[in-house]
Amino acid sequence: MRLVIPTAEWERAHREYLNEWGSSRVIPSCFNLHDFVNYESYLEEMMKRKDGYGNWLPFSSYFLVNHKDRILGMIDIRHELNDFLYRIGGNIGYSVRPSERQKGYATLLLKMGLDKCRELGMDKVLITCDEDNIGSAKVILNNGGREDKSEVDEDQTVKRRFWIDLSSKN
Ligand SMILES: CC(C)(COP(=O)(O)OP(=O)(O)OC[C@H]1O[C@@H](n2cnc3c(N)ncnc32)[C@H](O)[C@@H]1OP(=O)(O)O)[C@@H](O)C(=O)NCCC(=O)NCCS
After folding, report:
1. 28 CA from centroid of ligand 1 (Å)
2. pLDDT tens, residue by residue, 58-70
3. Which of 61, 89, 99, 150 has an alpha carbon within 20 to 30 A of 83's alpha carbon?
4. DSSP codes of every residue in 46-73
């Protein structure tokens, strides 16, 4: 299992992953292709955002890929926090494709993502989840999350907030 950076060679696998989501909102949103005329323009936009511009903070995104080059999950690492990310969004968003859930992949994906955060020099990360997202809360706790005060989003969703200290291996 490995993390790979989205490039043109992953277009087909990326689209196949998104097809499994049907009409539900794609998480993390940076993997959504809806607003782009083609894959090339999607990749160009992500390249621009990568180092931060306008309201976009620097970020890194990866696919979790198995030995058959099938994308099992996706992770988005925001290198810094602004007010919104500090209260609601956190440093990291992730998902596992619907057909591969509850097999431990998100726990592994976050673990591998935390290693990337260490490589980036981050010393702690904030990860949030909706109050009713039991699976995601477990993924965070499995990776050493310590719960902080919850916040309420503008649509009244309660966001649980967890910190993971990266100075010690969990
Ligand atoms: C949340 C999500 C990432 C979990 O992925 P996953 O691969 O199923 O997670 P894991 O298999 O690593 O499961 C971790 C733990 O959560 C439990 N779990 C997973 N989904 C669950 C669910 N729907 N209900 C209850 N428990 C659940 C697992 O049984 C496991 O428990 P354990 O640690 O006690 O063994 C996945 O459901 C998903 O992609 N959801 C949509 C996007 C999303 O919500 N992303 C998180 C945003 S904060």
Report:
1. 15
2. 999 999 999 999 9
3. 61
4. HHHHHT-BTTBPPEEEEEEE-TT--EEE
Q: According to CATH, what is the number of the domain 2-165?
A: 3.40.630.30
Nearest residue CA, atom 45 of ligand 1?
Answer: 95
Pocket test for ligand 1, best of 99, 108, 138 (most atoms within 8 A of CB): 138
Q: Where are the domains of the chain?
A: 2-165
Q: By percentage, how much of the chain surpasses pLDDT 70?
A: 98
How far apart are the C-alpha atoms of 84 and 10, rounded to whole Å?
31
pLDDT number for residue 35? 87
DSSP 142-162: HTT-EEEEEEE-TTSPEEEEE
Report pLDDT digits (tens) over 79-119: 999 999 999 999 999 999 999 999 999 999 999 999 999 99
